[in-house]
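Regression test attached.
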Amino acid sequence: MVKLVVDNKEIESEEGITVLQACLDNEIYIPNLCYLKEMDNPPGSCRLCFVEIDGSRQPITSCTVKVKEGMVVKTNTDHVRRLQRAAFELLLSVHHIDCRNCPANRKCELQRIAKFLKFGLKPKRLEQLEREVKTEQDHPCLEYVPNRCILCGRCVFVCRKESGQAMISFAKRGLDTVISFFGEEDKPRATCKECYACTRVCPVSAILVKNSHCQ
Amino acid sequence: MDHKGEIEEKALLHDMASILTSFEKERSNLIPILQMIQEKYHYLSARALQIVAKHLEVSSCEVYGVATFYNQFRFYPPGKHQIRVCLGTACHVRRGDIILENFERKLEIKAGETTTNREFSIDRVACVGCCALAPVTTIDDTVHGHMAPSKVEGLILGFEIEKERRKRENQQGESKQ
């Protein structure tokens, strides 16, 4: 076991886990979207889980740092909050906000983070960007809503882990990036009907089980 | 798929096998293989991507993800007339994006796509080297400088009239014989 100090509170954690996981285990919430406990190398792409660690000059993503004995961590400094708000605002500016009609309403990670950061769901400074994206590939039992998707990559990770092969992947790039189901003829895709892991890890319900005959 | 497409697909299946045997089954060969296919066919069809995936024993979704990331790969066969709208710095400043939008609307396709009759394809390019003429569009080998939205329709119409004329000439030629 390792002892570290988070926000002036001493906590204990297992060795070899990330600072983010240690905090979450000890009921200290740090906003995060792209992280999953099972990841060996978290992508650190959502830029939300910043913390300040004594000895490092700048805030650092807590999902990419392993715990060390005697570490002193602060999760709520001004600098950290500023970075988190900026990253969150950018995410919201490309997210189609229609909570009332969204299946994720009330269990949405974005709503939770907005509440935590005391941040309105309508970004004020940034223009709302509705991406024009065509969903090119149809999946027999999954539905994908590109303008809801925040491209965290959890589904891509979990699919690769469950099926051994990626049946889901990122396609295109930049503002056009989408999640793609390309590959109608791939055999492992037949197992989708028994898995649906991707729909469970999606923080914003952008991947859903198609409601007809696929239950 | 049209008839022409079917013939192409058969040729593709036949050729792919010979292209693939020269590559080992390693993930690092993915991009070289895709480049080779594109060089030969000028585009990557969905079927081709699936065959590559099978050869490298990865999912076709992964191949698709890699291929779509790079600008050098196209997924539609080039049209008979290739329209290239410049969006380099100078053309961007002179609103080349509006020109592109006009072509897209007129032909009902997006940049990177080809019309269903394979007459036209639209691409966005970054600088064709004559910024003084911005905004610039090249169609086949002809440069059209100082483009304006109002010129778009005329250019397309020109090609359509030309096609009609040639068709008529051909018919006349046949009836003479």
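Expected vs. actual: identical. The longest helix of chain A spans residues 78-93.
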